[in-house]
Amino acid sequence: MDGYQERKNGRTRARTTAQGSRAAAYGGESRSSEIHRRKQYSSQSHTRTAVPASARAEARRQRARTGTYGGAGTNVYRTTQARTSSRRNRELDQLLEMEEENQKEYEEYLERKRKREAKRRREELARKQRRALLVKAAGVMLLFMVFFFGVYKLFFSNPVLKRVTVEAGTKDLKVENFLKKDVDAAFVTDVSEVDTSHVGEQKIVLKAKGKERTSTLIVEDTKAPKAEADPLTVDVDAKVEASELVTDIEDATDVTCSFQEQPNLSKKGTVSAVVVLTDEGGNQSQVESEIKVINDTEAPVIDGVAPLTGFIGEPVSYKAEITVTDNCDREVELQVDNSDVDTEKEGTYDVLYTATDRAGNTAEAETTITMKEKPEDFVEPEEVYEEADAVLEEITTEDMTLKEKARAIYDWCRDNIGYVSTSDKDSWTNGAHQGFTEGEGDCFVFFATAKALLTEAGIPNIDVEKSDTSHSRHYWSLVDVGDGWYHFDTTPRQGGGEFFLKTDEEILKYSKAHDNSHIFDTSLYPATPTTDSTVE
């Protein structure tokens, strides 16, 4: 509340008090009524001319002093009335003056209010103008920023993605997979060396817009592994790994195998087991397999044991041609006892092979190794295998079975090597090299050339040497094309005949009829089936 209002309230309270007291003195007529009545009287039309307020006041004072209000008989009464009227007139004048002051102050208040309102409107208009200006400025700034950002994105922004996710096993990483937009770019990192077979992150560097930029390659595995059940036969109370019950596991990352529930192998019978496969991405699948529990008393079988030849000062491979099979264990460790062999001295030494399955059954096999000086013209195996690969590329295809490849090798040797009675028998690699390069040789050359071809074609083969050399020496092979070991001899015979996948009975029958041409120590080699090969 301002000063004007306070003063007005004070005067109003004083006036109200005075009016109350005077109303009592004037017979109950309030001062406001009197003021109203006098204002009406003043406003009525009279014959007298309007006199200024100061003149009227002076006249009232003069009458009050002289007491001239009427005739002589009424002087006393008039004097009293004059005094009373004079007092009332003075009070009314005071009230009128107060009203005039109030009116003046009210008008001043209204003027100040009007000015404040005008000022407020001007300030509001100024604020609106400033706000509009700010909006315009913000719009201009926004347009500028959009323009600047567009120019930056077009000409200066990094076109290479910060992170690129691929599925595990992805082989062909392309530049466009790492770009936000189509720009000229190339790998700096050798992506042929990037390994996507494991879940994780790798840094890939590309060159784009004249600058090397780095992206993070994220390898994830979202596909569950697959596998086939592989039933197993074990001894009672054997320790079995879950991985032994599955085969042909397919997944882009490493897979671990575990049992859903540990199988009970404490007694004979067939036990079901669920194998849980988990890859690096945490994806899982289950394969149900079986375990046949028996009392295992059968020893492993060691195949491929044959006389060996070694060169002084050169490493000796004792296990290259040896295989071990077992009725229960899929893999049996082969131990070699070569403690009697002196690899620095010429001579023939005994070699002992031992294989023990997890049931404790043990098998043994013996052979000999002949140590001698390495020929000066020795041909390294790598050279012979390269020559064999060149031949196989011409006579075999990827979709051929092992038996079909063996047949193609047999026919090639028969058709492309001519028989001569002598050859260098110091090394099978020299004999094979002679067969590939010269196209002629004796039985050793035929045998050695076929050995190189069989080995490179992935056909298991064992060297066989004639045991009775009193009349002549002879060499051939045992091969396994999928249904057991069979005799394989590419050397042509004067009496004719074919020696492709022959059984022991068939080869020994021919040998007996032809001066022991194929006599051999059956104890040194695995027995063949008694029937012909039936595999495709």
Characterize the structure shown:
- With 536 residues, this protein is an alpha+beta fold.
- It folds into five domains: 32-41 and 51-123; 163-220, no CATH class; 226-287; 301-372, Immunoglobulin-like (Sandwich), CATH 2.60.40; 381-524, C8orf32 fold.
- It is built from nine helices and 22 strands.
- The protein has a four-stranded mixed β-sheet with strand order 1-4-3-2, with no helix packed on it.
- Helix 3 (53-66) runs antiparallel to helix 4 and helix 5 (381-395) packs across helix 8.
- The longest helix is centred in the first third of the chain and has 82 residues, at 75-156.
- The protein is rod-shaped.
- Residues 21-31, 41-50 and 68-74 have low confidence and may be disordered.
- Residues 88-116 form a coiled coil.
**What's the main sheet like?**
4 strands, mixed
Strand order of the largest sheet: 1-4-3-2
What low-confidence regions span 5 or more consecutive residues with pLDDT below 50? 21-31, 41-50, 68-74
Q: Using DSSP, what is the number of strands?
A: 22
CATH topology title of the largest domain = C8orf32 fold
What is the tally of helical segments?
A: 9
Radius of gyration, rounded? 62 Å
CATH class descriptor of the largest domain? Alpha Beta
Task: List the topology elements.
Layout: H1 3-25, H2 31-43, H3 53-66, H4 75-156, E1 163-167, E2 185-187, E3 200-208, E4 211-220, E5 226-229, E6 232-235, E7 246-250, E8 255-259, E9 269-279, E10 284-294, E11 301-303, E12 308-311, E13 323-325, E14 334-337, E15 347-356, E16 362-372, H5 381-395, H6 402-416, E17 418-419, H7 428-437, E18 440-441, H8 443-456, E19 461-465, E20 475-480, E21 485-488, E22 500-502, H9 504-513
Parallel strand pairs: 1-4, 6-10, 12-16, 17-18
Antiparallel strand pairs: 2-3, 3-4, 5-7, 8-9, 9-10, 11-13, 14-15, 15-16, 19-20, 20-21, 21-22
